[in-house]
Amino acid sequence: MRRRVLPGLPLALGITLVYVAIIVVLPLAALVFKAASLGPEDYWRIVSSDRAFASYRVTVLCALAATVFNLVFGLSLAWVLVRYRFPGRRLVDALVDLPFALPTAVAGIALTTLFATNGWFGGPLSLLGIKVAYTPLGIIVAMSFTSIPFIVRTVQPVLEELDPALEEAGQTLGASDLSIFTGVILPLLAPALLAGVSLSFSRSLGEFGAIIFIAGNQPFSTEITALLAFIRLEEYDYPASAAIASVMLLTAFVMLAVTNFMQARALRYTARG
Amino acid sequence: MKIRLTNVVKEFQTFRAVHGVSLDIESGELVALLGPSGSGKTTILRMVAGLEYADGGAIYFGEENATDIPVRERGVGFVFQHYALFPHMTVGENIAFGMKVSKVKRSPEAIAKRVAELLDLVQLGGLKDRFPGQISGGQRQRVALARALAVDPRVLLLDEPFGALDANVRRDLRRWLRKIHDELGITTLFVTHDQEEALDLADRVVILNKGKIVQEGTPETVCRNPADAFVMNFLGDANRLDADIRGGKAYVDGVAFEAGGVADGGGQILFRPADVTWHEEGQGIAAKIVRVIDRPDSRRVLALTGSGQPVEFDTAPEFPYGKGEEGFLDIRRPRAYPAA
Amino acid sequence: MAHHGKGKPPRVGDNPVFRRTLLAFVLVLVALMIVAPLVVIAVEAFSRGVGYFAASIADPDTRHAILLTVVTALIAVPVNTAFGVAAAWAITKHDFRGKRLLTVVIELPFSVSPIVAGVSYLFVYGLQGLFGPALQSAEIKILFALPGIVLASMFVTAPFVARELIPLMQAQGRDLEEAATSLGASGWRTFFSVTLPNIKWALLYGVVLCNSRVMGEFGAVSVVSGNIRGQTNTLPLHIELLYHDYNAAGSFAAASILAGLAIVTLIAKVALERQGAGRVQRPSQLAGADSITRR
Predict the structure, then answer these.
(1) Euclidean distance between CA atoms B340 and C5, whole angstroms
(2) Strand-by-strand arrangement of the B239-246 sheet
(3) What number is the average pLDDT over the span B102-120?
(4) Domain B3-230 belongs to what topology?
(5) What is this structure's pTM?
(6) Which CATH superfamily is domain B237-338 in?
(7) Is C6 within 8 Å of B55 when comparing Cβ atoms?
(8) Tens digit of pLDDT for each residue in B117-126?
(9) Do C252 and A263 make contact, defined as CB atoms within 8 angstroms?
(10) Distance (Å) from the alpha carbon of A53 to chain C's nearest alpha carbon
(11) Average pLDDT score over residue span A227-255
């Protein structure tokens, strides 16, 4: 270990540790403690109840659908922003971050108004027999909206820094655009895409504000897990709330680990060099 | 495959432009495009490959006008300056890529066989399953060459093929590339800014400056008869003295040198540091030694002429003179040119 | 096509038909998914006229919600900024055991659902939580009051400032600070005259994003605030309340304030990115291609 030259470690580290302990670790530990105090039987009964299971199903399936949509949309958006020049490009680039900047409750009421059967989009869609607001489709819309920036912002810089000589090499070797895209560009974007996908998916799993307005919140069909935890709280069923929240926390940890693992795996060929 | 460029033009806002280059490369020839950075040499190479469009002129492959043939149908093998190996593919997959995407379908066995042959050719038999990130720079260079050769190109193009390598690796690879070229006999054009590399490797050297060809010829021709002061300077260390040209002679401090074909008026003579002998008295340009620098195999002497112009020359390690001593410079093989 | 004239040969995806199709696809989706929600907020906010809009904003409960939101931000953002700077200083300018773990813990709130955060706070300060009974007997109110709202806001935004500073300060190294210290400057002096000028844009960037999130946080605050109209309702909670009261115009009027804040945040973000903020954290280690071929 190098000799300590710069001052300020005790103070800076002290502040950091105290803050992290009080603000981050203590509450999460309290949640885990509360959930653990239930005992395995009660815990399992709560987290495996039919209603809880239905909420996991809705949440996970909608998050998957939203992530697939964002994979296509996000990759296209990143590609267009990096590779094409068109009027308004910088405006579109700035707008990509709107879902992060716009409070989720605001997004929630805006999307609900748009997709309600008397809304700008909901009206025409209902003529086609498609109902979005108060159905799982609405959940997907809200999840997609709140996680649009993830994939764009992870892919964009990698696409920008991609060595043009790699594409040129593909061209001199006689490859078609499609071969170069699928054989060279896509694999090189894969780590960033995977990172963006797992961030987008995690965010969708935990999203609350934007969804509850548009979802309809019917148990067994349009009730997401985050809402169930909230409802149990309002019913003063604190153990159930703790148990369900702990499942969400565990999922978040697993997703974090998966994200890191996938990135490390996808980066294997850059290990050296 | 013979390559012919006729009055090829490429406009760029800044540098790298090409202003009307015509060049014939014979089938099987190994030609170097040599020039400083910004001389347009890489632009020419990229136009031959089809990676850059010419704004004017034409490029012929044999009798075929290749100017408008898209890069992927042009049938060139291109080795990029930083190799551009696909980092997510193994060495073997990199080499196989061109065969896999080809319109001419080959069986996986045929591709594997060809990959093995090419790996043997570039002497990387054991590295088939490594990733580019796991091999050395010199090895990557050879993989890049094997990948380019895998598509049976009509022409091989190399952009600064040794630029990113250490000096000793560079020398080995140079000789090895010459050997491969002699075995395959494929028409090869490469770009370099290193005159030693060009002279060592090429059958013919094309020297470029500011987007124009200033001289082309065998290494012997360009070394012995540099067409102008730029070529003389670019090919190696040179001394330069102002001169007056009168009636086919160049006069420096009253001493006359051969200057056939140079118009009367202001001029200059250029000569190599090895082409100077120091005399205590007798013929030559009067000069005074300013400094002596010792080197492992010689002494480099810095002197000022009577008119105050600096001259550097190399002598044997036994050279007995030192700072402040006066004498005369006997200059061999001087070349006279008009003033710059 | 005798001569292509200017320009380079087409790159992958430059085929005009493909290009136009993809561009149209993306722009239509951006219009539908991103622009339309913004427009609908403005339209709905003024759907009952300017007078009603003004009255909605001027409503005492709305004004109280705005005030509470601003007060929350005024406490949470500076504290969070101080933490972020301290954490970045400790992590980037020093070596100590457990540094990686600390970084992971700081980033953790980014992965945790706001609802989980809110519920967790309940089990610390709520009556059924760790300190709840003790706090009640001491008559200290944390939950369903300003302190709870501030704490929950701090949780969700804990990584925001540190996340901008750490990669930048890592990249800048320690040379400048070591030089200043060797010239006899004190720690504070070194920080304010050497470190701070080099990180000011990134710091401001983090502060802007942090503020935006604090003012807009819904889920976590929703759990800990108790939703008492005119008392513990922040602006996002008030928007929900009005919306469920079937006062859409009032709800959107309040929402338009936060939408305005979002737009100001985006503009500030673009301006700060022009100063170089927010770029160092780009995941350049993911740009595998470059790191090999450029070597």
Answers:
(1) 35
(2) B255-258, B249-252, B239-246, B265-271, B335-338
(3) 94
(4) Rossmann fold (3.40.50)
(5) 0.90
(6) Nucleic acid-binding proteins (2.40.50.140)
(7) yes
(8) 999 999 998 9
(9) no
(10) 18
(11) 94
